[in-house]
Design goal:
The structure holds two protein chains of two kinds.
Chain A lengths: L6 E12 L2 E13 L4 E5 L6 H8 L8 E10 L2 E2 L5 H7 L4 E4 L3 H4 L6 H13 L3 H14 L5 H4 L9 H12 L6 E5 L7 H18 L2 E6 L2 H7 L2 E6 L2 E7 H6 L4 H9 L38 H5 L5 E4 L2 E3 L7 H6 L1
Parallel strand pairs in A: 3-8, 3-9, 6-7, 7-8
Antiparallel strand pairs in A: 1-2, 1-4, 4-5, 9-10, 10-12, 11-12
Helix pairs in contact in A: 4-5, 4-7, 5-7, 7-8
Chain B lengths: L5 H4 L4 H17 L5 H6 L5 H10 L6 H13 L13 H36 L4 H15 L2 H15 L12 H35 L2 H8 L4 H38 L5 H10 L3 H29 L6
Helix pairs in contact in B: 2-13, 6-7, 6-9, 6-11, 6-13, 7-9, 8-9, 8-11, 9-11, 10-11, 11-12, 11-13, 12-13
Classes of the chains: A alpha/beta, B mainly alpha.
Chain lengths: 331, 312
């Protein structure tokens, strides 16, 4: 039904400038985002998941960070080759982005309506009146009651959940095809979180939106995503359909993450943890980056970087000794 | 619009402030050693003449009685007779207030016209040549004392280039403006320096903020990012800095009016102090206090207008 992925990322490498040269912090990441699908990008803090998404927008913070390799294709367009003016048309026009904290990511001294209208005016050259009319329509679509009046409100006049809806409206002002959601529910309480997830799913269905959903919460991922990409130490550890990953994770890191979920532990037992700390950019382990913390690590893991190999249909993992459905019982 | 309700009751604050100022200046000015009558009549005055002058201006009454007279006069819209000018202080003040108003407002206007573009330039090209030059300007502007700066500007513009008058105040509007350019500039430069530093820091903080990342993620160009999102969010600290510095500006008018021989309130204050003209000193102090309170009041209104989160 669909003609190829909306967004296709190949060997994306983002590096930070150090005195001795460039050091990769996102290292050879590849994934496809299919039309109308939600891809969950999962990982600990510092695993490079947010940096990957900033790179997709070509909005890396600071002059010391740069995309040093790989390709990002949005439909037919190669984003890494675009100049700044063309890239601006992509940002907000074709890819929208929402963030964890709507209070700090909205302009506090501009009304919500004006922030949406401003984006519409820039991208579509609409008149002031027409832009505001569209802004109110977008606010209605994200479920803000009485959008005509609320368009004139400032961000601080919204409640937490409404503010998150407002930020989604700002990001969707120009009907982008792709939405990058950087931990959009992390700062919300559970009931509001559920409402926002519901809204994102509805928008996916009504607008055919494709979403990259960054989170460290596997619970959220299992509720919403179609496929999952797990990042560790700047590399992809595992990538596949949600069902396969949650039920039969092959990479020991993914498996460990799943066992760390509060729901996974039997009552009365301690919650499992993955011992150790995630690596930092300047102290990346050799070979497989997970080996110092891996229960299955052997000599090979210390020396050789595992290839990102196919373990099942559409399911890849970067591990020398992947866990398998057969081994699960033996443990 | 209940965010603006403070506009109704804030002016009431003027009452206790003015009362406090009246007591303080009344006591302070009378604790300066020296006798106005003696100053007025000169070294060869007779004790009789001195006593007569003292009686004429009520200076022989007890202090608290003098203060009550002063209050009574205030309620009648008078400030007492100037010992030197022999007319009501209020009349003296009305002739002196215009040059000082022009000086202070001109200085604030020039300072803003300098500071906003300079800070914007500096923040947008942080670490580059433009930024270094602007920071050099703001450090230098803070370092030069106003009287020295004034003299240097006179040498440059009046003596060497011969385009502006050295001192005085003009007759008609154009002439007055022409005379006030140098005094305003002298007062504006240090203020512009402080404002530039402050605005630059606020703009840099705002440029690194989350909301700016979000605006860029909507694809808006840097000019919109800067003028529509960074600048409005940087203004509140600048407005408050300006309001706080107004007191310093008014005080500075004393020095600058002396350097440029501008017949304003500052000069009047200096002369009042030298001649122990108690009524004049009190009057000028009251006007300066009122101005200070009023300008802070205006700054509050501006802050509320600029930042919708502020409630006073």
């Amino acid at each position: 039904m669909s003609a190829g992925p909306v967004l296709s990322v190949r060997d994306l490498t983002v590096s930070v400038a150090r005195d001795e040269g460039w050091r990769p912090i996102v290292d050879g990441v590849s994934f496809d985002l299919q039309a109308g699908q939600i891809l969950g990008l999962v990982g600990e803090s510092g695993s490079g998941k947010s940096m990957t998404c900033r790179a997709l927008m070509r909005l890396l913070p600071g002059a010391r960070l740069a995309i040093t390799g790989g390709s990002i294709r949005l439909g037919e367009e190669e984003l890494t080759a675009l100049d700044e003016a063309a890239m601006r048309k992509v940002r907000g026009g074709q890819i929208g982005m929402i963030f964890q904290n709507p209070s700090s990511h909205l302009d506090p001294v501009m009304t919500i309506g004006a922030q949406i209208a401003e984006t519409i005016r820039f991208h579509q050259g609409a008149s002031r009146r027409e832009a505001m009319r569209q802004a109110i329509e977008v606010l209605r679509q994200v479920g803000i009651p009485d959008p005509t009046a609320r368009a004139g409100s400032y961000p601080h006049e919204f409640s937490g959940g409404m503010r998150q809806r407002a930020m989604i409206a700002v990001a969707l002002a120009c009907q982008p095809k792709v939405l990058i959601a950087d931990e959009p529910t992390t700062a919300l309480d559970v009931t509001v979180q559920a409402q926002i997830l519901r809204l994102l799913l509805d928008l996916r269905d009504s607008k055919g939106l494709s979403i990259i959903f960054i989170t460290h919460d596997l619970g959220v991922v299992s509720q919403t995503c179609d496929s999952i990409a797990v990042m560790y130490g700047g590399r992809l550890a595992e990538l596949g359909p949600k069902r396969d990953i949650i039920r039969a994770a092959r990479h020991p890191y993914t498996a460990g993450l799943i066992r760390c979920q509060p729901g996974a532990a039997a009552t009365g037992t301690y919650l499992e943890t993955i011992p150790g700390q995630p690596p930092t950019v300047d102290a990346m382990p050799s070979g497989c980056r997970f080996h110092p913390r891996c229960p299955r690590a052997g000599e090979t893991c210390r020396e050789h970087q595992p290839a990102f190999i196919s373990v099942d249909l559409g399911h890849r993992a970067a591990c020398h000794f992947p866990e398998g459905p057969g081994q699960e019982a033996a443990r | 619009m209940h965010r603006y309700r403070f506009v109704l009751y804030r002016p009431l604050q003027l009452i206790p402030v003015l009362f406090g100022i009246s007591v303080i200046t009344f006591v302070l000015v009378r604790s300066i050693p020296g006798d106005p009558a003696r100053v007025l009549l000169g070294p060869r005055s007779t004790p009789d003449a001195i006593a007569r002058i003292r009686a004429q201006f009520g200076l022989d009454e007890p202090l608290w009685v003098q203060y009550l007279y002063f209050l009574k006069n205030l309620f009648h819209g008078e400030m007492g007779k100037s010992i030197l000018y022999k007319i009501d202080v209020l009349k003296v003040l009305t002739t002196r207030i215009e040059p000082t108003l022009v000086l202070v407002f001109g200085a604030v206007l020039i300072a803003l016209l300098l500071a906003v573009p300079l800070a914007a330039l500096s923040a947008r090209y942080k670490g580059r040549l433009a930024d270094h030059l602007v920071r050099l300007f703001s450090t230098a502007g803070l370092g030069f004392p106003p009287f020295w700066l004034g003299i240097m500007l006179i040498i440059l513009f009046s003596v060497v280039l011969d385009v502006l008058p050295t001192s005085g105040y003009g007759r008609d509007f154009g002439d007055k403006l022409h005379h006030m350019i140098l005094p305003c500039l002298t007062m504006a430069l240090p203020l512009a320096a402080v404002l530039t530093r402050n605005l630059r820091a606020a703009m840099l903080a705002e440029l690194a903020s989350d909301q700016v990342v979000a605006v860029r993620a909507r694809g808006l160009p840097e000019t919109i990012v800067f003028w529509r999102h960074v600048l409005p969010n940087s203004l509140v600290p600048a407005i408050n800095l300006l309001a706080v510095n107004i007191g310093w500006l008014i005080g500075g008018s004393v020095v600058i009016e002396s350097v440029f021989a501008v017949p304003g309130m500052g000069q009047l204050l200096v002369r009042g102090i030298f001649t122990r003209d108690y009524m004049v000193v009190q009057g000028v102090a009251m006007v300066f206090a009122c101005a200070s309170v009023l300008i802070n009041f205006l700054a509050d209104i501006l802050t509320v207008a600029v930042d919708p989160r502020v409630r006073l």
